[in-house]
What we know:
alpha+beta; Deoxyribonuclease I, Chain A; about 40% helix; RdDP_mobile_element; catalytic activity
Amino acid sequence: VIIGDFNSHSVTWGYSKNDENGDLVEVWAKAYHLSLIHDSKLPGSFNSSRWRRSYNPDLAFVDSNIEVMCKKDVLEPIPHTQHRPVTIRVTAAIAPNLVPMHRCFNFKKADWGGFSEDLDKKVTRIDPTPENYDLFVNALRNTSKRYIPQGCRTKHIPGLTPVLGAEYKKYQQMFQRDPFSEDTIMAGTALKRRRKWKELIEGIDMIHSSRKAWLTIRKLKKKSNITANQVAHQLLLNGKALNKQPKILIRWQTDLEETHFSAPYTIDELNAGISHLKNGKAAGLDDICMEQIKHFGPITKLWVLCLFNNCSSTLRI
């Protein structure tokens, strides 16, 4: 890490044009494989009261291997001076993401048998009306806390496999002993590249982001010899339909006055609707997950069915 006042101008660190010293500094940094740590959004480290402008004479160069580990900060001005302190923070190559403490249910370790039985006993004391829905939600929450384990990982690293976890622990020990040793830097660089490659491969999705997937494939493959004229010719061929069929006119029948929508819901319809629910979906405003609904007992399902029919007949939610 090299920090100092280089007294040089370059467009790379915020000046309008280069001078001789700036060109020499860039050549020197390139020759020794150094990278400039600079953020154009940060204020200048020197504020000239004469020219009423801020400049960046104070530069920080680091080895190219630890460039991704360094971050520059410009602090508040020093009183009665025109300078601002500059700090360079060196972090580990891979650091866990700090997430807020929000406990989530671990449905894989839930006691669904006890959950269904306990909830069936509690709903028998609640009338199936819209006014009592909050009581039902509270009973469901208390039962879930008792039979479904909860937890939260405040420090999480996505894509960290058991093999990478062992290497990450070894890298942490090396970083605590000497963060600037060659072995530590090489281990951190290799670990970060491996994790980045894993995230790149797992993030390729031809269904939701085909453009990103094709860009990745093009970077890995050699350039093809297909010309633009060949692409245009194939597009013209694809646009010509081989067999054109006439459009079929669909005559919709008018709705009858009496429909099956006025009939009350049945238990078979409720079970069919619950069976089509997908796990892993976000909970609604009542904070009830799909996994909890799927494990309702028979008495709880009848309670929900009576609630739906009550809302349908009284036109109240």
